[in-house]
Write a structure and sequence with these properties.
The structure holds 2 protein chains of 2 kinds.
Chain A (H helix, E strand, L loop, with lengths): L3 E2 L5 E4 L4 E7 L6 E7 L6 E7 L2 E5 L2 E6 L4 E6 L8 E8 L7 E2 L3 E6 L1
Parallel strand pairs in A: 2-11
Antiparallel strand pairs in A: 1-3, 3-8, 4-5, 4-9, 6-7, 7-8, 9-10, 9-11
Chain B lengths: L3 E4 L2 E4 L5 E7 L5 E8 L3 E10 L2 E4 L6 E7 L2 E6 L8 E8 L6 E2 L3 E5 L1
Parallel strand pairs in B: 2-11
Antiparallel strand pairs in B: 1-3, 3-8, 4-5, 4-9, 5-6, 7-8, 9-10, 9-11
The chains are: A mainly beta, B mainly beta.
C-alpha cells in the first residue's frame, strides 16, 4: 500500500461546479500538507501549503486537513476551464523537506 | 526569467548511451532534488542534495548519478540509458524552511 493514496481520475465537471479533490495517507508523522497543480507538459506549481489540521483559503481554493482521519482535501469553487490540470497532493514530517507525493488526480472542467 | 531551469527540455537517446540532464536555479536555495514522473506513479525521488558537499540517494537511485557543481547547479546523469528510464524528469529546489519549487521538466525517451 502506498503511503499517500490519490484517485487518478479523470474527474470531469462542468464550468462553475465545486470540485473536491482528496488524498488519504497512512503516516501519522506527516505535519505539512501541500497541493501542487501541474498543467500538461509543465512542472508542478505550488498551490496551497498548510500545517497540521484545519482549513486554509486562498481565493477560489480551500485546503482542508483532517489529521485524525488522515485525510486532506482541496476544494475549488466556481471552477473554470483554466483549472483543468493534474492536482498532486504532497506531505512531509517535521524532520526536513522530503516530500511524499500522491499519484495525482486529473481534473477536466468543461465549458 | 524562470527561477528553476532545466536543459534539455526534450531528449531522445539510444539504449546504452550516457546522457546528462542539467538544472540551474536563481532562487538562492541550498537544497536541490531530482525526481522522475511516470503515469500513475506520481513523483519519485532519485537523488537530493542539501548543500554543495552533500549528496543523498532517494527512492530510485539505481542507474543514475548526480553532481552538485555549485549551489545553483545540480546535474543528473544516466550512465547507460535503458528504455525503462523513459520518463519525465523534474528538478526542484527548496530552502530549509520552505517547500519545494519545480523546474519545467525534461521529457526523455530511450529507444
Amino acid at each position: 500500500q502506498k503511503e499517500v493514496e490519490q484517485d487518478p481520475g479523470p474527474l470531469s465537471v462542468p464550468e462553475g461546479a465545486i470540485v473536491s479533490l482528496n488524498c488519504t495517507y497512512s503516516n501519522s508523522a506527516f505535519q505539512y500538507f501541500m497541493w501542487y497543480r501541474q498543467y500538461s507538459r509543465k512542472g508542478p506549481e505550488l498551490l496551497m501549503y498548510t500545517y497540521s489540521s484545519g482549513n486554509k483559503e486562498d481565493g477560489r481554493f480551500t485546503a482542508q486537513v483532517d489529521k485524525s482521519s488522515k485525510y486532506i482535501s482541496l476544494f475549488i469553487r466556481d471552477s473554470q476551464p483554466s483549472d483543468s490540470a493534474t492536482y498532486l497532493c504532497a506531505m512531509r514530517n517535521n524532520a526536513g523537506n522530503m516530500l511524499t507525493f500522491g499519484g495525482g488526480t486529473r481534473l477536466m472542467v468543461k465549458p | 526569467d524562470a527561477d528553476v531551469t532545466q536543459t534539455p527540455r526534450n531528449r531522445i537517446t539510444k539504449t546504452g548511451k550516457r546522457i546528462m540532464l542539467e538544472c540551474s536555479q536563481t532562487k538562492g536555495h541550498d537544497r536541490m532534488y531530482w525526481y522522475r514522473q511516470d503515469p500513475g506513479l506520481g513523483l519519485r525521488l532519485i537523488y537530493y542534495s542539501f548543500d554543495v558537499k552533500d549528496i543523498n540517494k532517494g527512492e530510485i537511485s539505481d542507474g543514475y548519478s548526480v553532481s552538485r557543481q555549485a549551489q545553483a547547479k545540480f546535474s543528473l546523469s544516466l550512465e547507460s540509458a535503458i528504455p525503462n528510464q523513459t520518463a519525465l524528469y523534474f528538478c526542484a529546489t527548496s530552502s530549509a524552511s520552505e517547500t519545494q519549487y519545480f523546474g519545467p521538466g525534461t521529457r526523455l525517451l530511450v529507444l
